[in-house]
């Protein structure tokens, strides 16, 4: 069976890229073609309009699309999770220097960020941060990071949407003072000398439900085979022994226009340092292991609660039930 699967160039697209490129899909009788999408909005619309058979998708966006909160309403279901974590907040060198945090723990960094953000807002020059989509854990992690420092984002910081592959260029051009994006783009910005990694997403929200496999609910006949292929590929990707090969694959075939060694850094735990040489290593930075793969209704409800906390919805209780129903653990088990 021929299928087209959409993805956005990120480290956590690894399970679907490996499924297509390393034979996991073929072993399940699937001819899987990858479609690299330039933005999450484009991917959302192409999936909703039937141009894609499945997608590597932001977990909150899959819910928002299915519930008619973002773009054309789509008849979607989520038969498996692809990844937890993977995001980070990167700030420009100038902003980091102004903050001058005394440590790298997330609370200290958040408080120094909040201080500068208030000063800039009071001077009529609010900070601008990039996020990849309003319905994303990136947006929620920026809000939660600000709250850790005692800062209410409303009126204090501007959020603008930038597709992941364009975030580094936006920082280089001074369009944003920082951004929250998935790997490897934070590492790319740091390696290019454009900014400092201020906080890892998993420090703000441990085991944050990040990407899911989204499929049209009405085309369920191929889902078990696709789930099997992607699940096996995800487990392969999670093995440290495969990281060098996987990094090369993602750099060459995944549309990650950067060096394979930078991608490998993100697979191995987001090794990063700031200008003073302080280092950060977190083995949970990107998780694609077997333990994350079964879709959990509790994750869907948490995401809806974040939508409500961000002012995107009002009826969190009612929409929580609807979102939980989209997460099909039974479909994952059938796979």
Automatic annotation (TrEMBL):
UniProtKB keywords: Cell inner membrane, Cell membrane, Membrane, Transport
Q: Which Pfam families match?
A: NMT1_2
* Protein name as annotated: CmpA/NrtA family ABC transporter substrate-binding protein
Cell compartment(s), UniProt: Endomembrane system
What domain of life does the native source organism fall in?
Answer: Bacteria
What SUPFAM superfamilies does this protein map onto?
Answer: Periplasmic binding protein-like II (SSF53850)
């Amino acid at each position: 069976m021929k299928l087209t699967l959409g993805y956005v160039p990120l480290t956590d697209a690894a399970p679907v890229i490996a499924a297509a490129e390393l034979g996991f899909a073929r072993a399940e009788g699937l001819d899987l073609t990858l479609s690299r999408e330039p933005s999450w909005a484009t991917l959302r619309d192409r999936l909703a309009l039937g141009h894609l058979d499945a997608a590597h998708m932001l977990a909150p966006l899959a819910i928002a699309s299915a519930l008619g909160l973002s773009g054309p309403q789509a008849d979607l279901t989520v038969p498996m999770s692809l990844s937890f974590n993977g995001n980070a907040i990167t700030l420009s060198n100038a902003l980091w220097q102004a903050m001058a945090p005394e440590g790298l723990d997330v609370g200290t960094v958040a408080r120094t960020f909040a201080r500068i953000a208030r000063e800039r807002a009071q001077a009529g020059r609010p900070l601008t941060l990039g996020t990849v989509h309003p319905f994303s854990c990136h947006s929620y992690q920026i809000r939660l990071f600000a709250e850790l420092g005692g800062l209410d984002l409303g009126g204090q910081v501007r959020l603008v949407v930038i597709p992941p592959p364009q975030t580094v260029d936006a920082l280089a051009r001074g369009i944003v003072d920082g951004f929250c994006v998935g790997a490897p783009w934070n590492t790319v910005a740091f390696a290019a000398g454009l900014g400092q990694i201020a906080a890892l997403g998993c420090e703000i929200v441990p085991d944050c439900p990040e990407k899911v496999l989204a499929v049209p609910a009405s085309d369920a006949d191929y889902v078990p085979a696709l789930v099997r292929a992607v699940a096996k590929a995800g487990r392969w990707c999670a093995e440290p022994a495969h990281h060098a090969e996987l990094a090369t694959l993602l750099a060459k075939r995944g549309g990650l226009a950067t060096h394979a060694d930078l991608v490998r850094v993100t697979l191995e735990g987001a090794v990063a340092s700031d200008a003073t040489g302080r280092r950060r290593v977190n083995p949970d930075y990107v998780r694609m292991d077997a333990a994350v793969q079964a879709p959990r209704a509790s994750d869907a409800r948490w995401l809806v609660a974040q939508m409500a906390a961000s002012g995107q919805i009002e009826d969190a209780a009612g929409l929580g039930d609807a979102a939980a129903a989209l997460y099909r653990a039974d479909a994952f088990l059938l796979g």
